[in-house]
Write a structure and sequence with these properties.
By secondary structure, this protein is of the alpha/beta class. The chain has helices at residues 4-24, 41-54, 73-80, 91-101, 141-153, 203-208, 213-216, 242-251, 254-264; strands spanning 35-39, 63-67, 85-89, 105-113, 117-119, 134-138, 158-159, 172-174, 180-184, 198-201, 219-220, 230-235, 269-270. 36% of the residues lie in helices and 21% in strands. The longest helix is centred in the first third of the chain and has 21 residues, at 4-24.
């Protein structure tokens, strides 16, 4: 039961959001009303709020940003119409989510990459991890596989040939340091750093925790041919919503690229 409690809580939260928005009279499906976008706080909501404050009015876009700290509710809220779009995830994660939940959410435009990194409060280099060290990794299917691939890229482990985006510790072929793995909700991984020897942390959660991926990571994903770019997504059929098209254009504008470069200094990379 890796995520049952989390998903149940998130679904209930999505239902509460639906009621809350209904009570305010907001209708995310009305193409002439505000576009409500669900987003992780950092960097997604920050980027959206930059667009809202500096670019949206000129394009005639009424943009509203709703922040969520988990990786489930933004999709359930998009599927049920509580929000008109979301911005927080990558394609392997979305494919897995749609398959498991019967949803039909689709990407619109890729905006940025948050490199996944290995961090530690106890060692300065990955090679310094001792035999039997405990490493925290995200427990959702795609990010767990992504974390294991990151460790494999640095030679800390070897994965069995052919494993894809559903790899788990049971798919490890070689583990020369006899590393032990602690599977946690992705948001909890940076908070575990005082309790484990190292942790693999998603870029957004690293930044929220004052970690600087470009400087602090012992091992960091390469952006080259990386399939984990984060994108604006909508429920299938809403891709041609004029509000969504306006936002997609603004999210891939030169102004947003400069904002990402200036604010995140290599910890978040524009993908356009």
């Amino acid at each position: 039961m890796r995520n049952t409690a989390k998903i149940t809580t998130a679904v209930l939260a999505a239902g509460a959001l639906t009621l809350g928005l209904s009570g305010c009279g907001a209708d995310s499906s009305a193409t002439d009303g505000p576009l409500i976008v669900a987003a992780s706080p950092v960097p997604h909501a920050e980027i959206l709020n930059y667009v809202k404050d500096n670019l949206a009015e000129k394009e005639g876009l009424d943009l509203q940003v709703k922040e969520f700290t988990d990786y489930v509710t933004p999709n359930t809220a998009t599927q049920d119409g509580s929000v008109g779009a979301n911005y927080f995830q990558n394609k392997p994660y979305l494919d897995d989510f749609n398959k498991k939940n019967g949803t039909d959410i689709v990407p619109v435009v890729t905006v940025h990459l948050e490199p996944l990194g290995l961090y530690s409060h106890k060692v300065k280099k990955a090679d310094d991890l001792k035999s039997g060290a405990t490493v925290a990794i995200p427990n959702d299917t795609v990010n767990e596989a992504r974390a294991l691939k990151l460790l494999a890229s640095d030679g800390l482990i070897t994965l069995q040939a052919g494993v894809g985006n559903e790899a788990t510790p049971s798919d490890i072929a070689k583990n020369p340091k006899n590393l032990k793995f602690k599977e946690l909700e992705a948001a909890q991984t940076p908070r575990s750093l005082d309790d484990v020897d190292a942790a693999v942390v998603n870029g957004n959660y690293a930044i929220e925790s004052d970690l600087k991926p470009s400087k602090d990571a012992l091992v960091l994903e390469s952006p080259k041919n990386n399939p984990y770019g984060n994108f604006l997504a909508v429920k299938k059929g809403n891709e041609d919503d004029p509000r969504v098209k306006k936002l997609a254009k603004l999210l891939t504008s030169p102004e947003v690229k400069k904002f990402i470069q200036d604010k995140y200094a290599g910890s978040v990379l524009a993908s356009f």
